[in-house]
Amino acid sequence: MENKTKILLAEDDENLGVLLREYLRVKNYDTDLFTDGDAAFKGYRDSGNYDICILDVMMPVKDGFTLAKEIRQMSPNVPIIFLTAKSMKEDIVEGFASGADDYMTKPFNIEELILRIEAVLRRTITTDVSQSSYKIGNYMFNSTKQTLTLDDDEQKLTSKESELLRYLCVNRNGVLDRNFALRTIWNDDSYFNARSMDVYITKLRKFFKDDPSVQIINVRGKGFKLID
């Protein structure tokens, strides 16, 4: 589903796996659960569009470290978080050597896991937004100079307008998750900040009024989509 962040969850403890999967779905993450490493590998190979992988280490058929290495061969940049009962220093080192972006030992707080997921995704997107110039329809947007230009008409953007538009560009024709944008740009997903972001979205729409091919639409219950 393009409208949600998609998670591959590999956990051989079925009770824990189902609990995590349902909790992640409540938090608006599209989550697929696999109970052994080989099934998880086949699921990743056949789908190929997961945004992040959460892998148990000790799994039947194929362990998490091996699975991570194989996933990395297909997708070098997909984020990976390990969940494991192992806490020995050498296991943590091996985990990061296998391509982990983060590592949590059991038992863990499920809310902390959500925060770790958001932090890893934030780092990944921040890497992707190193680009500073974007063509949006007939407009040119420069996120460094914070300008939006149409022909000879240059509009100066505020910092929040520029940052919000930059994330929309990175997710162009896909959905920018509402909560992610709030926590990344406003550092808080409170009601008042959510209303503030809605105002900024309205302002951005007005900036593109001279090019009907550009739209910023609401995706109900999920976020916003820049269509170009």
Q: If helices are DSSP runs of H or I spanning 4 or more residues, what is the number of helices?
A: 8
Radius of gyration, taken over Cα atoms and rounded to an integer in Å:
20 Å
Regarding CATH, which class of the largest domain?
Alpha Beta
> Alpha-carbon distance between the termini?
20 Å
Mean pLDDT: 86
List keywords for this structure.
8 helices; 228 residues; elongated; alpha/beta; Arc Repressor Mutant, subunit A; five-stranded parallel β-sheet; Rossmann fold; four-stranded antiparallel β-sheet
SSE layout:
Layout: E1 6-10, H1 14-26, E2 30-34, H2 37-47, E3 52-56, H3 64-74, E4 80-84, H4 89-97, E5 102-105, H5 110-128, E6 133-136, E7 139-142, E8 147-150, E9 153-156, H6 159-170, E10 175-177, H7 178-186, H8 191-207, E11 215-219, E12 223-227
Parallel strand pairs: 1-2, 1-3, 3-4, 4-5
Antiparallel strand pairs: 6-7, 7-8, 8-9, 10-12, 11-12
3D structure, described in words:
This protein is α/β, with parallel strands linked by helices and 228 residues long. It folds into two domains: 122 residues, 3-Layer(aba) Sandwich (Rossmann fold), CATH 3.40.50; 97 residues, Arc Repressor Mutant, subunit A, CATH 1.10.10.10. The chain has eight helices and twelve strands. A five-stranded parallel sheet has the order 2-1-3-4-5, sandwiched between helices. Strands 6-7-8-9 form a four-stranded antiparallel sheet, with helices on one face. The chain has a three-stranded antiparallel sheet with strand order 10-12-11.
